[in-house]
Design a protein that fits this description.
Helix content: 10-25%
Strand order of the largest sheet: 1-6-5-4-2-3
Bound molecules: tetrahydrodeoxyuridine
Number of strands: 6
Radius of gyration: 15 Å
Number of helices: 3
Length: 157
Amino acid sequence: MKEKKIEIKMVEVQYDELTDRQRKLVDLARAATDRSYAPYSKFRVGAAIELDNGEIVTGSNQENAAYPSGTCAERTAAFYAHATYPDAKFKAIAIAAIGTDGCEVGDPVAPCGACRQSLLEFETLAKHDVEVILVGSEAIYILPSIKSTLPLAFSEF
Ligand code: THU
């Protein structure tokens, strides 16, 4: 028997420690929460994806009366980005959230499992790491890649 360990690396930073590029992405993810449609959960999530063609695409969670038909902010943004710019590679994603109390979450939220798997597909297509920036009012976490959010991910490639 052999024990194996998978480690993930992430850094915790404050807003003023971000680069201008990262700050812009964080600002756009925060702004995207305003366009969330979340009448059921009242939890508003925004995502901003930076592409290698210079575009930044945003998305928000879009809920539905038939609950499972709704979509998370990350997948709204990712699928819109790839549907609009099919040749562009993802470079980074920022994710922000407003809790049910109407205030930004203190601890950042991390993408759900389905979003991690969906985002991984675009990191694989990009052939390089896609930076992940998780935004909260108390802390911002930066992870170097999508795959670091999904250890032992399924992949056919
Ligand atoms: N949600 C996201 O948009 N992204 C996540 O990573 C987790 C959850 C949404 C789904 C639902 O509309 C609301 O947040 C509450 O779960």
